[in-house]
Specification:
Number of helices: 4
Number of strands: 0
Low-confidence stretches: 48-58
Helix content: over 70%
Mean pLDDT: 82
Number of domains: 2
């Protein structure tokens, strides 16, 4: 069983975007055993592949909906502007 402190550290560093190699180097320099470090990454990786997302690698659904909503508002504004411009142009003729 992997040490929970090790798992927490790997999760935290991964969430901050630190590369695996850098995390491994730091842990090895602090006295962790290579097999423990590798097992820690395997546990984190297997929980990600199982859909648990423990390290925040997938954007939350809420963020996706914000992007969609902002995009739709932009399309409506641009479309309305084009419609308004063409109606005024046609009325001038």
């Amino acid at each position: 069983m992997v040490n929970q402190q090790l798992l927490d550290y790997i999760k935290q560093q991964t969430q901050q975007g630190i590369p695996k190699e850098t995390i491994s180097s730091i842990l090895l320099s602090q006295g962790w055993q290579p097999q423990d470090v590798e097992e820690g990454f395997n546990v984190i990786g297997s929980s990600v592949s199982a859909g648990q997302n423990p390290v925040g690698l997938v954007k939350p659904v809420k963020t996706m909906w914000k992007i969609i909503a902002i995009s739709l508002v932009g399309v409506v504004i641009v479309g309305g502007g084009i419609y308004f411009a063409t109606q005024n142009f046609l009325n001038l003729m």
